[in-house]
Structure formats: C-alpha cells, structure tokens
Design a protein that fits this description.
Layout: E1 2-5, H1 16-30, E2 35-38, H2 48-52, E3 59-66, E4 72-79, E5 85-89, H3 91-94, H4 112-123, E6 128-132, H5 143-148, E7 152-154, E8 173-175, E9 187-192, H6 204-208, H7 216-237, H8 253-261, E10 264-267, H9 268-275, H10 278-282, E11 287-295, H11 304-314, E12 319-326, H12 331-335, E13 340-343, H13 351-356, H14 358-377
Parallel strand pairs: 1-2, 1-11, 5-6, 6-9, 9-10, 11-12, 12-13
Antiparallel strand pairs: 3-4, 4-5, 7-8
Length: 378
C-alpha cells in the first residue's frame, strides 16, 4: 500500500514534521510493508519555513526583533536555495506562541517584529518575499509591520498612533512617503491560512480575535476599528480592502500586504502544495493521512486538511484526518473529500495533558486506525 502522510502542525504542541513522523511510525508498526511518503504541510502558518526552506536547500537567518509586546527576542526567517527568495513566517516574530495566555491581548499586540524580518530580508538582497500569515497574536491590521518598514499612521494631531488593534480608531492619516523604496522592486506573496475578509461577522476580529485573548466586547470594538482603518486606506490610498478574500488573515495583515506592499494574496496551502508537487504524489497513492490540531468549521477556510482533501478527491483517493480536537459543523469537510475524521484524545483529559502527550496520542490513534485497515486486507 502506498500512503502519503501530509499533516499540518498541531499548534503549540508539535511541528508538521514531528506529526508526520509520528503518523508514519505508527503505520509502520502495524503495516511494515507499507510504502510511506512523509510530506509535512503548512497552510501559511507555523511550518511554512520547514515546508519550503529545507527542500530547497536554503538556510535560516536569525534576527533580533520585537515580539508582539515589543520585547526584544531572536526570531528567524529563511532564504531559499536560489539566494533571492525569502520566506517569513510571521509567527516567529508576532506569533501567539510567543505569549503566555495571560499576556494575550489583541488590543495592544503588534506586528512590528514581522516588519523587521522583512527589512532584514531586503538588506540581504532578496527580491521575492513569501510571508506566512498564520499563528499571529495580533489584530492590528498590519500597521506594526508597515511602521517597521517606514510607514506612518497618524492621529488628528499628526502624532503616530499606538501599537495594536485598539489604537486604530484614532487613525486619521496614512503617510507612506518614507516607506522602504526597495519594496517597489520586490515581489511580495502573502500565504494566507484563511480566506476571511477583513471585517464583519466572518472577519478577522469576530472569528479569530477570541483565541488571541479578546473578550466579546473587545472583538466588536476591534472589528469597528478595522472598518475605520479600511475607510482611511480607501480615502488615502484609493483601495477598498474591507471584503477582499484573505485580507482578514493574521488579524488584518492580509489587508496591509495588499494595500501597502502590492502583494499577491494566495492560499498558503495552494502555494505549498504547488511547491512540493503534492498532487503528483497523491494521485499515485492508495491512501492519504492528514491532520491538524483542531478540525472545525474554520477548517473550510483554506486550512491544510481542506486543501489536501480536495486534491485527493480529484483522484478518488480516500483521506483519513486526525485532530486533537473535533468541533461542530464539520459535515461540509466530508463533502470536500475527507473520508473519516478521528480525535487522538482517547480519554477525558485537560488541554495541557493532551499537549504533553501528543506524540503518544497520535501514534495510539493511528495504530488503531490501521489495525482496522489491516484486518480488511487480511
């Protein structure tokens, strides 16, 4: 049996590479004769560097930057084997995993550090930059990033507004006269892990702000602030970004890439699958195993499992998906090509307990699945 193992990371627990390795190990224990191909995947969030830099024989570049609360940290980005293409995973500088749960606050968290990574890539002579927009701790519409690249966001007094999504209601004027001119000669691609618009009930704040620490009332305010931000962008830059697909990625970072850097917004999963030639591998498989930390309705918006399943469905290949948590409203996911979904959690436990035992839980779950498959082959 030819099996393609193509999972995403289990957020805040295991990388996509580690998840794939655990799945493959479990399959081999039950079906040692199986031909297993591991292809770790990213949808534009965590794992983008791992998915693109290693296969290209590129290198990681360490950089001192600001974290979401403007504390000094060391982050990194990648330069591919061609020497001119940079891969920036914003989660390494502006990610949720950099903050303790008590520190998470989308009213004040900033994307400034991501801008510093982009600036360093420009300093290294890169002329193409791929920016992964998943796993962010931010809801600032990308203003921190643009500030780091020379842009200015001013209030009615002509003073720079504070960091974070909570400050956007004070925005009165955008000044990009000092924006880094090297960006004009640089191809920018935003790899979006979701297709949500900037504002509204399916927008950045309402859908994703809660996991970043926002209360219900704060999410409503953040959504209003992004609506105001979009209005100023339209007035000063002549671009309407409110309802463009993908502009809600990473707390509105997609909107900033589109409006200020003339970026192309792509589904991250499509970018990765094309680069890794995933379809060519899947069409020759008998089975695909994928997975991510949580499978729910958000999975429909450009997540890894959806992308993998669509390709497999095209070639009539069954897909098994595993997850740490399965949410409600997943019927549509089955329609997109997933054959069956399994939770790795095998007994009542806290989130912390499950995250500490993810390796064991993945292997135990996958071994049980393949015991069933093995029994039908016998």
């Amino acid at each position: 049996m030819n099996i393609v193992v193509a999972p995403d990371s289990f957020k805040e627990s295991l990388s996509a590479k580690a998840v794939a390795s655990n799945i493959a190990t479990a399959i081999a224990k039950i079906m040692p004769e199986a031909n297993i191909l591991q292809i770790p995947i990213s949808d534009g969030g965590e794992g983008l560097l791992e998915a693109l830099v290693t296969p290209s024989e590129g290198k990681l570049i360490p950089v001192k930057v600001k974290d979401p609360l403007l504390r000094n940290i060391q982050a990194h980005y990648g330069i591919l084997g061609d020497g001119t293409t940079a891969v920036v995973e914003m989660a390494t500088a502006s990610g949720l995993e950099l903050l303790k749960e008590i520190e998470r606050n989308p009213l004040i968290t900033s994307t400034y550090g991501t801008g510093e990574l982009i600036r360093d890539a420009l300093n290294k002579g890169c002329t193409k930059i791929i920016i992964g927009l998943g796993g962010s701790a931010t809801n600032d519409g990308g203003i921190g990033m643009i500030k780091a690249l020379g842009g200015k966001f001013l209030n009615k007094k002509g003073v720079s507004i504070d960091e974070g999504g909570g400050a956007l209601d004070a925005l009165n004027q955008i000044d990009i006269t000092e924006l880094d001119k090297r960006l004009l000669k640089c191809e920018i691609i935003g790899a979006c892990d979701v297709s949500n618009p900037l504002t509204g009930n399916q927008g950045a704040s309402i859908v994703f702000g809660g996991q970043k620490g926002g209360s219900t009332l704060e999410l409503e305010q953040l959504d209003k602030n992004l609506f105001h931000y979009a209005s100023v962008i339209k007035s000063d830059l002549g671009m309407d970004v409110k309802e463009v697909e993908g502009t809600g990625a990473a707390g509105g970072m997609g909107a900033a890439l589109l409006a200020f850097l003339d970026a192309e917004l792509m589904r991250g999963i499509d970018l990765i699958m094309d680069t890794l030639q995933l379809e060519a591998h899947i069409k020759n498989a008998d089975l695909v195993v994928t997975g991510e930390g949580k499978i729910d309705r958000q999975t429909l918006y450009g997540k890894t499992i959806t992308g993998v399943a669509k390709v497999a469905q095209k070639h009539g290949i069954p897909v098994i998906a595993i997850a740490g948590k399965i949410g409600n409203d997943i019927d549509e996911i089955y329609k997109l090509g997933v054959t069956s979904i399994f939770s790795i959690v095998n007994q009542p436990m806290t989130l912390q307990e499950s995250m500490e035992k993810t390796d064991y839980l993945i292997q135990s779950c996958v071994m049980n699945i393949f015991r069933i498959i093995k029994s039908y082959e016998s």
